[in-house]
Protein: Baseplate assembly protein
Organism: Sphingobium cupriresistens LL01
Amino acid sequence: MAQIPDTERLTGEVLRYGAIASVDLANATCTVESGDIVTGDLPWIAQRAGAVITWSPPTLGEQCLLLAPEGDLACGLVIVGLYSDACPAPSSSADITLLKFPDGAIISYDHAAHALAATLPAGGTVAITADGGVTIDGPLQINGKVTATEDVVAAGISLKDHKHGQVQAGTAQSGKPV
């Protein structure tokens, strides 16, 4: 009589919950602690690794799922991205897609409100490099100092090189830029 395999036991050998024990950034591998077992270096599954590539390495203690084909931990893969008490979900809204970074920076998009927001921690900076230029269509509000290294042109009038009409000596006001 043929034996029926113990599928629960076999599944337990193929899939295991664990936590990231170490990360080798140079080789894009990590080790996983699952109960009394600590794996060797294993690759984690990235969101994308083709023409589009993402880089978001796992962090120590992050909960994960260890996938070991045929129960062979040496050939395992690590699936990260499981929320836990130590790393809870950053939102509970179905309308928001959000990235939260370790320093507190957040980039979010609320598709119901059509609102994109980027919030940086104190001292945070933003750099945009676009050799072809940057276009903003819509009202623009800037709260703070604006610095331009070349010139500012509004309605065809240069801030740096404009001339004034109706100039008079003394304390009189000049006319508008021409």
Notes: The first strand starts at residue 15 and ends at 24.
